[in-house]
Specification:
- There is one protein chain.
- The chain is built from 14 helices and 13 strands.
- It is an alpha+beta fold.
- Helix 1 crosses helix 10 and helix 7 packs antiparallel against helix 8.
- The radius of gyration is 24 Å and the shape is globular.
- The two termini are 36 Å apart.
């Protein structure tokens, strides 16, 4: 009799409209990029074909897999590898977001109130960041500097330190637009750090968002001018605009005991650019993207040419080795090392070398997010074991060909596909 617990459902990415968009049209996109897009958006970055190739292999057994077996009924299943791309694959980015949120709450944030602060820049300078990705770090540095400057004045201590976790996002409410901005989780106040003494926190509940916006605008424009990416005349013109396009918005404070909201914010800060179910075909060479309500038109959908949507989605792929989440002040590596306490001794039954890996494992994340255990045998409920990892191409092909001939023996075959967790 099949086990009655909630059953794990594989993703089957090849059945989604987003996957088919890249599978069917990416090669044509590469061939036509120079003619259609290069003059406005710069040359095709080398990282893009590599990331797309990895994404098309994500969750597909053709790219390699692990074998798991039930020790009771001897049933077996193949678990395909994930692509682990950054800021592109909805499933892999959801895992990154879940891990980040967990680490944020358990290891990084101090037990004080925080605010979620969003820093945005006007359209006139966004193209600079799209063409030269290293400039994105200017936004996070300026975001931290302007908050720390004002909070130092508020607590009357020029050496006080603010804790900032800043995430760079290059998309707005949906991924079909390039909109570089910063989501930051900032301490609602500053830490006084006396020489030779313990840091202590002073809360500041009133924030002057207009002053933050003006300081952020001046800092960003000055940094762009110093980087020789903005002419002094253009800087003065932008400083003279009454409606500058820069904005800083701080939400209501989040108290330290509200761990659920803090985890939700952590996942939101590092969410994937686009949901899997946000794309649907709209003809042979067009797609429809589900968007939030557009106030000007009242529409909730955007229809785009397939190649145009691919270009917009590929614009969200970060540069190799570029850090999209940055830690400043009290949350910098140096700041955290000062307050780090010795870790508690591990429990007696968890002293193996792989204990840390298990705590961050794929199965544990799925249990936490979807409330199902992917390693429980759906036939008898016993926890299945990993027996082999298959990566060699010839062996992979032989196993898959054999399964095709015999019809396979997948205990999850026929179940509905699973989407990634929402941010």
């Amino acid at each position: 009799m099949p086990f009655a617990a909630p059953i794990y459902r594989p993703r089957h990415p090849e059945r989604t409209a987003l996957y088919r968009l890249f599978e069917n049209h990416f090669e044509r996109f590469v061939l036509q990029y120079e003619e259609r897009f290069e003059h406005q958006h710069g040359p095709l970055r080398r990282v893009i074909p590599r990331v797309v190739e990895q994404y098309l292999a994500c969750g597909r057994p053709e790219g390699g897999f692990a074998r798991i077996r039930c020790p009771s009924c001897r049933g077996e299943h193949l678990l395909a590898f994930s692509c682990q791309t950054r800021n592109f694959c909805p499933s892999c980015q959801a895992k990154r977001a879940a891990l980040f949120a967990e680490r944020l709450v358990e290891e990084i944030l101090a037990p004080v109130a925080h605010r979620h602060v969003v820093f945005t820049v006007p359209k006139v300078v966004r193209g600079l960041f799209e063409r030269e990705r290293r400039l994105l770090s200017i936004l996070t540095r300026c975001a931290h500097t302007c908050v720390q400057t004002l909070l130092r004045e508020a607590v009357d201590d020029p050496r006080a330190v603010v804790g900032t976790v800043a995430s760079i996002q290059t998309f707005g409410s949906f991924a079909a637009n390039f909109h570089p901005h910063v989501h930051a989780l900032v301490t609602e106040g500053a830490f006084h750090v006396p020489a030779g003494g313990e840091p202590w926190f002073e809360r500041v509940e009133w924030w002057d968002q207009a002053a933050l916006t003006e300081l952020f605008r001046r800092l960003v424009l000055r940094k762009l001018r110093n980087a020789e990416r903005l002419q002094p005349e253009t800087e003065q013109m932008l400083l003279g605009w009454q409606h500058s396009g820069f904005s800083v918005h701080a939400t209501e404070p989040v108290l330290p005991d509200d761990t659920g909201r803090l985890e939700h914010l952590g996942r939101y800060l590092t969410r994937a650019p686009l949901r899997l179910d946000a794309v649907e075909p709209a003809g042979e060479r067009k797609v429809k993207v589900r968007t939030p309500l557009q106030p000007q038109t009242g529409q909730r959908n955007l229809e785009l040419d397939c190649l145009e949507l691919i270009r917009r989605l590929c614009a969200q792929i970060p540069a190799p080795r570029q850090q999209m989440v940055r830690y400043y002040g009290f949350y910098s590596n140096r700041g955290r090392s000062r307050r780090r306490t010795p870790a508690p001794a591990p429990p007696p039954d968890d002293d193996s070398p792989t204990a840390a890996t298990r705590r961050r494992s794929w199965a544990r994340l799925l249990r936490r997010i979807f409330e199902v255990d992917p390693l429980l045998c759906p036939q008898c409920g016993v926890e299945m074991r990993f027996v082999a990892v298959i990566q060699e191409e010839t062996v992979v092909d032989e196993i898959l060909a054999h399964l095709d001939r015999v019809g396979g023996n997948d205990p999850w075959e026929g179940t509905a596909q699973r989407g990634p967790p929402a941010a």
